[in-house]
Amino acid sequence: MRETPAVELPAPVVQREQPLVIYVLPVYDEVDGVDAFHAALVEATARRPDLRVEFVYVDDGSSDGSLDRLLELRAGDPRVTVLGLSRNFGHQLAVTAGLDLAHEARPDAVIVMDTDLQDPPAVSLELIEVWESGADVVYAQRRSRRDTLFKRTTASSFYWLLDRLAETHIPRDVGDFRLIDRRVLDVLVTYREHNRFLRGLVANLGFRQEGVLFDRDARVAGESKYPLRRMLRLAADGILGFSTFPLRLISRLGGAISALSLLAALYAVVVRVLFPAHAVPGWAFLGVGMFFLGGIQLIMMGVIGSYVGRTYVQSLNRPLYNVALVARGQETPAE
Fold first, then answer.
1. Crossing angle of helices 228-242 and 198-205, rounded to 10°
2. DSSP β-ladder status, 80-85 and 174-181
3. pLDDT tens per residue, range 133-142
4. Of the chain's two ends, which shows fewer C-beta atoms within 10 Å, N or C?
5. What's the N-to-C CA distance of the chain in angstroms?
6. What per-residue confidence (pLDDT) applies to 13?
7. Are 244 and 304 in contact (CB under 8 A)?
8. How far lies 326's CA from each of 26, 67, 101, in Å?
C-alpha cells in the first residue's frame, strides 16, 4: 500500500503588533506655546505610521490655564493623556511621574522632551531610528543652542565641573531629551531618589547608550522655568548625587591648612630665634587666621550638612509626587 505523501501546510501568518512609543512631556505654565508644540509633534510622528504613539502631558501645578488647555487637546486627540500633579514639584519629579504612568502601559520605548519647542519634535524620529538599530538609550546632544550668553556660560561651566567631579560619566551638553528602551525603563522606575538628576540616573544605569547631535532652537513662547536658583539646585543634585568628591575635598583642605600652619609656626620660630629684632607681634595675623579658619569650618559643615540633609529627606520615605488628575484613553478625568 502506497503511503500518501505528507502535505506541508503554510506557516500561519503572525500579525506583529506595532511598537508603542510614549512621549513624556512635562508642562509648567506653557499655555501660550503648548498648541504649537502639539501640532509640531503630531506632524512629526505622522511620518511614522508604523508606530503607535501616546502623548503623556504632565502638568506640574501650572497656574496659567495649561491644564485646561491640555484637556482640550485630549478632547481632540485620543492619543493624548493628561496627568495633573497636585502642586509644582519641579521638572525632574514631573518627568518621573510621566515615566511611572508610561511604564504601566508597557511601552516599547519612551521619549522625554520639553514642550517649549527648544527640543524639536522632528529630532525624536532620529532617536527612534538609532533605537531601532539596537541602542537602549538614545540621548539628544546639543550641537548649538540659542540662549543668552549667561545661560550658555553657566551651562558650560556646570557640565565642565560635573565632568570632573561625577563618578559616573554623564555626557556633556545633554539634557533630559532622550529615548529610553523598555528594559531600561523597567530599571529606572525602581530608582526613587527625592533629589533627582535624571540624566545622571540614566547614565548610571549603563546599557548601550548613543547620542544624536541637534541644534537647539529658541523658545517659542513664555520664559525659562530654570532661573538661577533652580539651576544651582539642579547642579547641586547632579554633583552631590553622583560624587563624594566634596567630602574628600574637606579632608584634603584640612591637610593643606594644617601644613600651612606648620610652615607658619616654623617661620615664627626661625624669626624669633635668628632675627629677634624683626619679630613683630602678630595680632593682625592671628585675627585674620582665626576668621579664615572659621569660614573654612563653616563651609565644611555646610558640605557635610548637604549630604546629611539628603539622607534625612530620603529616610522619610515620602511620596515623590501627588497626582490630582489622570485623563487617559476613553476614561473620564479621574481626580
1. 30
2. unpaired
3. 889 999 888 8
4. N
5. 76
6. 44
7. no
8. 14, 11, 10
- Which amino acid, 10? P
Residue at 334: amino acid letter = A
Specify the residue for cell string 543634585.
237
Cα separation of 22 and 99, whole Å?
A: 9
CB atoms within 10 A of CB 333: 14
Mention every residue, 6+ apart, whose C-beta is less than 8 A from residue 106. Answer: 20, 182
> Of all helices (H) and strands (E), which one includes residue 209?
strand 209-216
Cell numbers at residue 182, please? Answer: 523598555
Per-residue cell: 314: 530620603
Asked if residue 188 lies in contact with residue 180, where contact means CB atoms within 8 angstroms, the answer is yes
Check if the beta carbon of residue 158 is closer than 8 Å to that of residue 206: no
User: DSSP per residue over 5-38, as a string?
Assistant: PPPPPPPPPP-PPPPEEEEEEEESS-TTTHHHHH
Mean pLDDT in order along the chain per 10 residues (335 residues): 52 64 91 88 91 92 87 88 89 90 92 87 91 89 68 65 64 83 91 80 84 73 56 60 62 66 67 62 58 67 70 72 81 57
